[in-house]
Design brief:
The protein is α/β, with parallel strands linked by helices. The protein has one domain. It contains three helices and five strands; from the N terminus they run βββαβαβα. The chain has a five-stranded mixed sheet with strand order 1-2-4-3-5. The protein starts with 7 loop residues before the first strand and ends with a helix.
């Protein structure tokens, strides 16, 4: 009989009031592996629901070993934690979040982002104001 033990550590970096999440980090208990960064539209996690994962995060964590990852960092363009589906009109650019992303980007070589057409539209309308 064999016994295997593993863990997935979760680290969340939030604002003091917990209304904004700047980064979610998932780390597997592997001896080696790569680190990847993903930019999402908005976060659904903070310290009050740290043990919950949405379907996207569940899928990513389930396949981390398939693509050789030990660590996954998820940043969001809009840091306000949302608990229900919102329209792009409800998203506002957060200067603290932009500074955080800028700081992180100096240490990495590659970022994977998705839904860029929505994001570009939101950013264009924000800069017009």
């Amino acid at each position: 009989m064999k016994t295997f033990k593993t863990s997935v550590d979760t680290e969340i970096i939030t604002s003091e009031d917990g209304l904004n999440t700047y980064e979610v980090i998932k780390k597997l208990s592997l001896p080696e592996g790569k680190c990847a960064y993903l930019i999402s539209l908005y976060p659904t996690r903070n310290e009050s629901n740290i043990y919950s994962n949405d379907s996207t995060l569940n899928h990513l964590v389930s396949h981390m070993t398939d693509i050789g990852l030990k660590e996954l960092h998820i940043l969001s363009l809009f840091s306000k934690v949302v608990t229900s589906k919102i329209s792009s009109r409800g998203l506002k650019v957060d200067e603290d979040n932009m500074k955080y992303i800028d700081k992180v980007m100096h240490h990495i070589r590659f970022i994977l982002a998705y839904r860029l057409n929505i994001i570009v539209g939101i950013l264009k309308s924000s800069f017009r104001k």
